[in-house]
């Protein structure tokens, strides 16, 4: 009508809405009026109370006709008088109370903010209690105002009720506490939080005040045990050199965490949580990272699953569908038949089919097959002569590209009989040549690789090297607390997990002696429930002490792992040997030529023989026979005889102790010869000698033997000098040698150990008896490199290493290696080479060549010509004083056993065996036979 446009209409409507929204509805209007009146009353009340004049007319005063002084007029005077009369001093607070009540009840509220009557009921109750108790307290404690009691009538009534029963103090206390309860009812503020808040304020104020008083001088906190823990838990937040104010600043920075004071349980929970998040410095071995990287690489390298393997995961329906689409679905009849014969098979497997068929052949009759075909025909409605009889099934089978299936039923009886005869003959042959019996190797095919390959060795499957950080941290905490039990303040700073043990590096508090921890190693092992704990007193380059604890699950360090390591592959020397892995899993290798001799000791079963085998095998991986030769002495006849026949051997493996001393004597002679040769060529060692020889040969002037004299051989001119190989002498049970041959061996070994280094002759001596009569001072002084496997006592450890520690090893190849020229032992987990590994490498070398034994090494009879400088003929030894008596006894008893002589004459083994050998030399008894017995050659004395 009069509104012209639609827009305008909307605008007018909107404006109308807005206008109505600003108007109050009926109830609201009433409430707002009450709100205004309430405030008016509060203001008037305040005016009346604060301008109260006792001379004004009121309930209590009669002042007729006088001028009213009260600013609230006559009403104000009467009201004020009434309130002062009723509430006393408390009347002054009533305007504020009235204003507050007005605000609470009449202010405009939103719909989502309804009045909580329960809450307001308690508040009202609180207010009443507060007013009553305040009046009571005022009546008891304050003077009257004007002519009113300070507590008003209310206070007077309350006190008159309380005083006869509670007396003054009791009444005050009761009113005070009720007042407190009323306050909490009214405000909802807990008195506990008020107390804590006051405490906080006072501490902060005191700290602030103290710092103010001390001026710029800042207080430094002592790193006490508590702060020590704090440092651990929040190192980046609270450090020991922070001032108190700094710390309070930090506290203020996190008010949410500091202000709501937690309960005791919560505090404990937080402490636990803090301790859980306490991270130690764990050094993961590189191997773990490598492993992870390799795993990732392997995963990324994994080829896409082939179509065939994809098909394995599809259902038969999907396969059929796709086959139909591609048009290579087999004949319906065939598939149906197959279904009947093999209802379970969902994926086609030719091998499974063959097995099934061959198994089923005898039980499927032609009738049954016909029945199957009938069924199929009925289902398909097609008649096709697919299977005619059983034979046709058999003949069709080879099409399936299956392995040969033996079918004894169809064999000719003559052929079967012939085969029986042949197999019987083969069995007899096999019985004669039992493969489990050690036998001479036939000519093996020569390997194509120039040196043995790593494929010969056992390669373990990929091993999980899972390191549980939380478990390690738990152990670290346990270590700290156990040490604290023994009053040792120490803190774990670094953790090095390894394949066999984990090293915890401890930072000791100032003044704690390392020896205290060392002496506690047994107690620590017990309290940590560990097999053994080794204390590393000095870690080179670090101010810490090491505590080595065995891992829960131990990993075997395989020879193939270490021999395939970069360090070993990079090493050039032919005498490089593998030791094992250090505590962090890094390969430890050494060079025998630099050692130059090594002593290996440990109790039986500690892994010595495996260790020695590993050393020999690693040299077989590095050196050709022209570079390195071995002389092996093995009194046990077990450990080293496996090497018999490798081209590196200079002589057969020596198992007779007499031959062993000959071999050692030969070595001394060879050493002397080499020295003469080297001095003739003016070189200082074997390496220099070989280089000079090569240089001369390359230059076309090969060097002839300068020591040759006419008559030494049938040749007319001196022979050409040949390359000198390193010679490594391995003695597996050195104690045996010392026991049987005695002093002579000690002398020979000492001579070799002193001088053989430059001549390229090196010794590996292993013993399971690390006692001072075996490892004598003379030998020890000349053999600087030692390897200690587990020993039973600390004394044994000292005998080998000149320090303790080997008694705390874990066995199974766990060793302490004392490198040459060092007094610090290195803990090494020895590499493990199985018998199969040894055989594989040995066979590989046997296939490459035959050894050329030097007979004089073992058979070299002692004659005045072959005597070494300074050596005496054995026969020149003084005849034993007991000799004549022993001869008499032996000739009479006709028994020439060493033990018999020992028993009869009460002498030691060495002396008895020497006397028997002297008798042998004089032809009184025969040499030892195969059974160890000797026969008496001298005739029995004739008795009259
Ligand atoms: N490095 C190693 N890792 C794992 N197991 C090892 C290792 N070395 C040795 N062993 C285990 O310890 C056993 C004993 O080792 P070995 O025969 O070398 O001891 P031994 O000290 O030579 O004893 P004995 O003196 O009696 O010959 C081995 O059969 C093997 O099972």
Automatic annotation (TrEMBL):
Biased composition annotated in UniProt, kind: Polar residues: 236-250
UniProt GO MF annotations: ATP binding; DNA binding
Record family assignment: Belongs to the FtsK/SpoIIIE/SftA family.
PANTHER family assigned to the protein according to its UniProt record, in alphabetical order: DNA TRANSLOCASE FTSK (PTHR22683:SF41), SPORULATION PROTEIN RELATED (PTHR22683)
Alphabetized UniProt keyword annotations: ATP-binding, Cell cycle, Cell division, Cell membrane, Chromosome partition, DNA-binding, Membrane, Nucleotide-binding, Transmembrane, Transmembrane helix
Residue stretches making up the FtsK domain: 585-798
GO BP terms in the entry: cell division; chromosome segregation
Keyword Signal recorded: no
Classification of source organism: Bacteria, Pseudomonadati, Pseudomonadota, Gammaproteobacteria, Vibrionales
CC annotations in GO: plasma membrane
InterPro entries in alphabetical order: FtsK/SpoIIIE/SftA (IPR050206), FtsK_4TM (IPR025199), FtsK_alpha (IPR041027), FtsK_dom (IPR002543), Ftsk_gamma (IPR018541), P-loop_NTPase (IPR027417), WH-like_DNA-bd_sf (IPR036388), WH_DNA-bd_sf (IPR036390)
Native species: Vibrio albus
Name under which the protein is recorded: DNA translocase FtsK
Subcellular localization: Cell membrane
């Amino acid at each position: 009508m009069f509104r012209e446009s639609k827009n305008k209409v909307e605008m007018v409507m909107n404006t109308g809405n807005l206008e109505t929204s600003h108007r109050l509805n009926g109830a609201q209007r009433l409430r707002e009026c009450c709100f205004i009146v309430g405030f008016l009353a509060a203001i008037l009340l305040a005016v009346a109370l604060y301008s109260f004049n006792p001379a004004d007319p009121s309930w209590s005063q009669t002042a007729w006709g006088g001028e009213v002084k009260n600013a609230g007029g006559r009403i104000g005077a009467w009201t004020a008088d009434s309130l002062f009369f009723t509430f006393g001093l408390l009347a002054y607070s009533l305007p504020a109370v009235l204003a507050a009540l007005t605000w609470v009840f009449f202010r405009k509220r939103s719909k989502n903010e309804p009045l909580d009557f329960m809450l307001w009921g308690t508040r009202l109750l609180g207010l009443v209690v507060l007013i009553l108790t305040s009046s009571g307290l005022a009546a008891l404690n304050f003077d009257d105002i004007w002519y009113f009691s300070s507590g008003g009538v209310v206070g007077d009534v309350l006190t008159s009720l309380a005083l006869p029963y509670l007396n003054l103090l009791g009444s005050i206390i009761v009113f005070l506490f009720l007042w407190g309860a009323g306050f909490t009812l009214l405000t909802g503020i807990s008195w506990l939080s008020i107390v804590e808040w006051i405490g906080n304020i006072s501490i902060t104020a005191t700290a602030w005040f103290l710092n103010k008083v001390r001026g710029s001088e800042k207080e430094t906190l002592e790193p006490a045990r508590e702060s020590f823990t704090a440092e651990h838990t929040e190192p980046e937040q609270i450090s020991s050199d922070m001032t108190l104010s700094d710390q309070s600043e930090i506290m203020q920075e996190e008010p949410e965490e500091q202000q709501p004071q937690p309960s005791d349980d919560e505090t404990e929970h937080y402490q636990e949580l803090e301790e859980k998040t306490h991270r130690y410095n764990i050094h993961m071995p590189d191997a773990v990272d490598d492993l992870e990287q390799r795993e990732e690489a392997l995963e990324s390298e994994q080829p896409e699953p082939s179509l065939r393997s994809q098909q394995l995961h599809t259902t038969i329906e999907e396969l059929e569908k796709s086959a139909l689409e591609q048009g290579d679905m087999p004949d319906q009849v065939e598939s149906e038949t197959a279904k009947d014969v093999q209802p379970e098979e969902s994926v086609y497997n030719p091998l499974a089919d063959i097995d099934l068929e061959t198994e089923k052949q005898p039980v499927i009759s032609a009738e049954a097959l016909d029945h199957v075909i009938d069924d199929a025909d009925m289902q398909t409605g097609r008649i096709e002569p697919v299977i005619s009889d059983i034979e046709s099934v058999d003949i069709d089978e080879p099409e399936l590209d299956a392995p040969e299936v033996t079918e004894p039923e169809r064999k000719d009886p003559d052929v079967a009989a012939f085969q029986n005869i042949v197999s019987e003959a083969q069995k007899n042959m096999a019985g004669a040549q039992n493969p489990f019996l050690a036998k001479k190797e036939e000519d093996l095919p020569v390997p194509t690789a120039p040196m043995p390959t790593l494929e010969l060795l056992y390669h373990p499957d990929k091993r999980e090297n899972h390191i549980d950080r939380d478990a390690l941290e738990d152990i670290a905490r346990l270590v700290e607390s156990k040490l604290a039990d023994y009053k040792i303040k120490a803190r774990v700073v670094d953790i090095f997990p390894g394949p066999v043990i984990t090293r915890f590096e401890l930072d000791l508090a100032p003044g704690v002696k390392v020896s205290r921890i060392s002496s506690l190693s047994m107690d620590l092992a017990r309290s940590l429930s560990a097999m053994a704990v080794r204390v590393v007193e000095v870690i080179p380059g670090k101010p810490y002490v090491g505590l080595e604890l065995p891992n829960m699950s131990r990993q075997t360090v395989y020879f193939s792992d270490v021999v395939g390591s970069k360090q070993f592959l990079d090493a050039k020397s032919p005498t490089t040997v593998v030791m094992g892995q250090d505590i962090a899993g890094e390969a430890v290798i050494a060079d025998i030529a630099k050692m130059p001799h090594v002593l290996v000791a440990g109790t039986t079963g500690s892994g010595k023989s495996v260790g020695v085998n590993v050393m020999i095998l690693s040299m077989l991986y590095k050196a050709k026979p022209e570079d390195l030769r071995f002389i092996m002495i093995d009194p046990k006849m077990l450990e080293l005889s496996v090497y018999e026949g490798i081209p590196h051997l200079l002589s057969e493996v020596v198992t007779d102790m007499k031959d062993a001393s000959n071999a050692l004597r030969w070595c001394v002679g060879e050493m002397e010869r080499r020295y003469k040769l080297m001095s003739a060529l003016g070189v200082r060692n074997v390496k220099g000698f070989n280089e000079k020889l090569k240089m001369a040969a390359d230059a076309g002037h090969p060097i002839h033997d300068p020591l040759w004299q006419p008559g030494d051989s049938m040749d007319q001119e001196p022979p050409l000098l040949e390359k000198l190989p390193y010679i490594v002498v391995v003695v597996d049970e050195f104690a045996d040698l010392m026991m049987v041959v005695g002093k002579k061996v000690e002398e020979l070994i000492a001579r070799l150990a002193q001088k053989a280094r430059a001549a390229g002759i090196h010794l590996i001596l292993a013993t399971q008896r690390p006692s001072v009569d075996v490892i004598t001072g003379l030998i020890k002084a000349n053999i600087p490199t030692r390897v200690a496997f587990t020993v039973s006592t600390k004394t044994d450890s000292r005998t080998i290493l000149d320090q303790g520690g080997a008694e705390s090893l874990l066995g199974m190849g766990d060793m302490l290696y004392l490198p040459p020229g060092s007094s610090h032992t290195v803990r090494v987990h020895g590499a493990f080479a199985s018998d199969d590994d040894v055989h594989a490498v040995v066979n590989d070398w046997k296939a490459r060549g035959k050894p050329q034994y030097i007979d004089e090494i073992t058979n070299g009879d002692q004659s005045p010509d072959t005597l070494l400088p300074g050596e005496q003929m054995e026969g020149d030894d003084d005849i034993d004083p007991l000799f004549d008596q022993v001869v008499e006894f032996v000739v009479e008893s006709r028994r020439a056993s060493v033990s018999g002589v020992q028993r009869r004459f009460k002498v030691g083994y060495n002396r008895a065996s020497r006397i028997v050998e002297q008798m042998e030399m004089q032809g009184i008894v025969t040499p030892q036979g195969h059974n160890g017995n000797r026969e008496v050659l001298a005739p029995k004395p004739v008795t009259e």
